[in-house]
Amino acid sequence: MLWLEDETLKKQRSDLSSLPIHMADMGTDNYEQSFSLELMDSERKVITEIDNALQRIEEGTYGICDVGGEPIPKQRLEAIPWTRFCVVCAGLVEKGVVKQEDLFNKYDYASGIDDGDELDNFENGR
């Protein structure tokens, strides 16, 4: 019976050997796990944007700003091939003046062109 208890203790110790011993080690492990999850999420978002860009190519709307409806400059498309916005409108989206989720409701996604004054309304807070 003593032999069985000794074997059980050895097994428990070996199972614990992979666990962090110090609180700082636990913090590092948590940080690394969080960082990895954020990186995977970021990569997933880029892949989604690339897929959307390929769809816009098929639809003939690639290179047209989703907010302003104007052509996106070639240099911007070379730098960020999956972009949906010109530089000015990307700034509006980043500042929260234009919300990406609102674009689905306010703009014709099939053509990528707005109805005229919508960008002015966003800029003026209307």
3D structure, described in words:
The chain starts with a helix and ends with a helix. It is mainly α and 126 residues long. It has a single domain, classed as DksA, coiled-coil domain (Four Helix Bundle (Hemerythrin (Met), subunit A)). It has helices at residues 2-16, 23-59, 74-79, 87-95, 100-106, 118-123. The chain is elongated.
Can you summarize this structure?
The protein has six helices and no strands. With 126 residues, it is mainly alpha-helical.
Keywords:
Four Helix Bundle (Hemerythrin (Met), subunit A), 126 residues, mainly alpha
**Beginning-to-end CA distance, first to last residue:** 80 Å
CATH topology: Four Helix Bundle (Hemerythrin (Met), subunit A)
Helix content: 55-70%
How many domains, as an integer? 1
Please write the CATH class name.
Answer: Mainly Alpha
Mean of residue pLDDT values: 74
Beta-strand segment tally: 0
CATH architecture: Up-down Bundle
The major beta sheet can be summarized as: none
Task: Assess the beta-strand content as a share of residues.
Answer: under 5%
Q: Using only CA atoms, what is the Rg? A: 26 Å
The quaternary state of the protein chains shown equals single chain
Number of helical segments with 4 or more residues = 6
Q: What is the fourth-level CATH superfamily?
A: DksA, coiled-coil domain
The secondary-structure class comes to: mainly alpha
- Poorly predicted runs of 5 or more residues: 105-119, 121-126
> What is the H/E string?
HHHHHH
Shape: elongated
Question: Secondary-structure blueprint of this entry?
Answer:
Blueprint: H1 2-16, H2 23-59, H3 74-79, H4 87-95, H5 100-106, H6 118-123
